[in-house]
Amino acid sequence: MAPSVQASDQSVANGVVSADMIAAGENGWMVVHRTDAEMKPGPVVGYAPLRMGENVDVAAILTEEVAPGDMLMLMVHGETGGMETGVFEYTLGATEDGPVRVDGDLVMTVITAQ
C-alpha cells in the first residue's frame, strides 16, 4: 500500500483537525503544517501518531488558533533520526522525524479550515 493522506475541508472550531485515512509505510506522525497558495509547508500547528498500515480517523489537537479560510497541510512524517521513539522531535527544516517522500514528493494533502 502506497503512503497517502485522505482528508476534506473541515471545521476546526473544536481545536482538532482530522484525516479520514492515512496509509503509512512505517510508524510515524501525521503533522499539520500551516500553508498558503504557494503550497510550501510552514510552521507545525499539530501532530498525531501513526501506525504502519491504514490509520482511520486520525485526529490532531491544534496547538494554536486556526481561523476559517486558513490552509492546512496534513503530511506524513517518519519516526526516524530522532533521539526518542514515540516523541515527536521535528522542527521546520530538521531531519529528526522528518517528512516522508515517495519518488521525491511529499506525502500530504491540503485542506481549508471552515
Give a quick precis of the structure.
The protein is mainly beta and 114 residues long. It has strands at 4-6, 16-24, 28-35, 44-50, 53-61, 71-78, 101-102, 105-106, 108-112.
Report on the structure:
The chain has 114 residues and is mainly beta. Helix content is 0%, strand content 46%. A 4-stranded antiparallel β-sheet has the order 4-3-6-9, with no helix packed on it. Strands 1-2-5 form a 3-stranded antiparallel β-sheet, with no helix packed on it. β7 and β8 form a beta hairpin. The mean pLDDT is 96.
Strand content: over 45%
Please work out how many helical segments DSSP would assign.
Answer: 0
Largest sheet: 4 strands, antiparallel
Poorly predicted spans: none
**Rg over alpha carbons:** 13 Å
Q: Give the overall silhouette.
A: globular
Mean pLDDT rating: 96
Please state how the strands of the largest beta sheet are arranged side by side.
4-3-6-9
Q: Helix coverage percent of residues?
A: under 10%
Distance between the termini: 31 Å
- State the total count of DSSP E strands: 9
- Helix and strand element order: EEEEEEEEE
Helix-and-strand structural type: mainly beta
Features:
114 residues; 0% helix; mainly beta; globular; 46% strand; single chain
